Amino acid sequence: MTDYTEDEQKLIDATEWPTSAELATADAMIVHGARLAMKMQADSDVLSKRFFRMDKTDPGYRDAARAYGERVTHMVAEAQATIALAKVQEKDRAAADELARTLWVYTEDGGLLHELMFDYLDARGVDSQAMLDLAERSAS
Asked: Can you tell me the distance from the alpha carbon of 140 to that of 45, in angstroms, rounded to the nearest whole number?
């Protein structure tokens, strides 16, 4: 656990996940996503230094590789979502705010994000149940 200075805590507070749909503007979601992506990048840098120093015969090598790869993947996904929202905002601020609120509501719902992934796969000709089965089989 990090002890934050007062100024650091103010930065974190200014970029927290919105607490209501009304506060879920594009700007709020963009600064939140950018903060998370920066933190994930810093975490992946630490993990990469540990991982790339390891010998491939080290018993922890696979776990270190997985941790590093997953952190990079999460950072990329968060950055991509943040960039997409910022690009929409460049074209249409009202549409970006509407999108931000939709994302906020979908996220706060709990199970909806998972359900939507099924719908999106099926609508594009990919067997969502087979994808879930594969994901569960390969989960660690």
From this structure: 23
